[in-house]
Each structure stands twice: as structure tokens, then as C-alpha cells.
Amino acid sequence: MAFPLPEPMRLALDAAARAGEAGEVPVGAVVRRGGEVVAVVANRMRELGDPTAHAEMEAIRAALARLGTGRLDGCDLWVTLEPCAMCAGAIAHARIDRLYYGAADEKGGAVAHGPRFFAQPTCHHRPEVYGGIGEAEAAGLLRRFFATRRA
Amino acid sequence: MAFPLPEPMRLALDAAARAGEAGEVPVGAVVRRGGEVVAVVANRMRELGDPTAHAEMEAIRAALARLGTGRLDGCDLWVTLEPCAMCAGAIAHARIDRLYYGAADEKGGAVAHGPRFFAQPTCHHRPEVYGGIGEAEAAGLLRRFFATRRA
User: Fold this and answer.
1) What is the ipTM of this complex?
2) Three-state SS for B22?
3) Which first-to-last residue range defines the signal peptide (chains A, B) (predicted)?
4) Residue of B47, B48, B52, B71 to mutate, interface with A, max A Cβ within 10 Å
5) Is B56 a catalytic residue?
6) Could you give all domains of chain B from N- to C-terminal order, each with its CATH number?
């Protein structure tokens, strides 16, 4: 019997799938504080013409705008793909408590791959990190998206 | 005789100084394409209540909005402080050609310190990098800013 996915990862995966249908690389992110979902956002790089508009950056900005707290202490970030260096840095700047991610990103990931940002001695804030949640579904969305575009 | 500062670094330092007077950590950034300055921006973390609103992120977004090109190929970024991991990642995503920075950042820098992002095998785009331009003035702005706030 498969474990049911935690609700915020379900929301992030659904946001990723909708983004993929709109031609965006299908990655979704959710910010939650306590039990409350404060942002559900997907990749908006294509929509905004901005290669920095990753799901995590957009989710962090949306949560900051919604909460008005200037930081995201007490918040969790759920994202369907391992964050890159830019997003890992943003997670540290925003002081997010816990990071939950889905698929590993061997090429661009910066949490378990490449610069392993949170393990750097100079990293000023380290969230708790949990990877592989909803991994198969998250990776499948990406695989199908790129297969279609290469066809 | 001191070398005159290149014009874009002069603009970035002036933007940093103005930001410092407004209570922002004094860091400024300029995006230039060919000989044309397309964005002059400083740190807006305090103004926007957003710890990801570093000068480089804001300058990249402003340049993308102005140029409408979706990427910043052919552009240089001039910034008064060594970029952090978030900003280094954004520079790579935006495909900036050349990075010129002023003061070193031993604590938060990710170019010559910490994760040394552009030297990572997984880094997908490496700009040419030139550090130490206007270093003394850039570092002085930051030192005086923090000295005042600690007093």
C-alpha cells in the first residue's frame, strides 16, 4: 500500500501539472505556516519571460506578500523538484524552517547535488530537509513534459 | 594615480550609497548591454519586505522587463558586493556574459567563497568574472552602514 501524499505536496504536484499544460516546465511549490497553506505557485518562467521565476522564488515572494512578515520563520516550503542554488539561497534568506522536495535534480539541484548549499560552512540558515516526497509523480511530470517538447 | 572607476561601477556605487541613506544595506547593481545601461538598481529588501530582493535580483528582473528578451545574453552585471548563492544562480539562469563585482563577501559570497558556484561542475552557465573593482569604496559603504546601526 502506498503512503498517501501529504496535502501540501499534493497541491504542489497539481500546480506543477497545470503549469506543464500551460507550457511551463512543470514544477510547483507550496508555502505552509502551521497548518495553513499561504502560497501555491508553479514555475512562471515562460509567462513572465523571467528565467529566475522558479516555483520556489515565486512561492516565497507570494508568501512574503501575503504574510507581510519580512521573513518566513515558522514556514515550510514544499516543492516538486530539488531546489537549484538560486532557490536554496532564497530559502536560507527567507529563513524557512523546513524544506520538503520531490524529485532529485542531478544536473541543477543544489541541495543533495552540486554545491550542496545547506552543507556549506558559510550557509547562514539551514532548514530541515526532506527529499523524495512524491518523487515518482514529480519526476514523471518533468519526463513527459520534456519528451513531448523533444518529439 | 588611481584608475578612474568604470562608469557602470560608478553608477552601482552611487545607487548603493542612496540605498544606504534610505536604510537599505548599501549594495547596488547595474546591467549593461553593449554600451547601454539597461538597469540601475539597489538592494530593496527593506522597502519590499523581501529578503530575496538583493540588488542583483532586482537588476536582473528590471533588465528582463526592459529588454523583453527572456534572457540576458550579451549583458554585463556590475555589482558592488560579491554575489551570494541565490544571485549567482540567477546570473547563470539569466545567462549574463560578464560579472564585475566590488567588495569580497567572505561570509555570504558564493563566487570566490563558500559554494564557489560558477566553479561547480553542475553550473550550467559561467560568466566571465572580474572582482575587486571599486572594492574599497564598496566595502567602506557597507562598513559605515553597519557601524551606524550597531552604535
Assistant:
1) 0.95
2) coil
3) none
4) B52
5) yes
6) 7-84+91-148 (3.40.140.10)
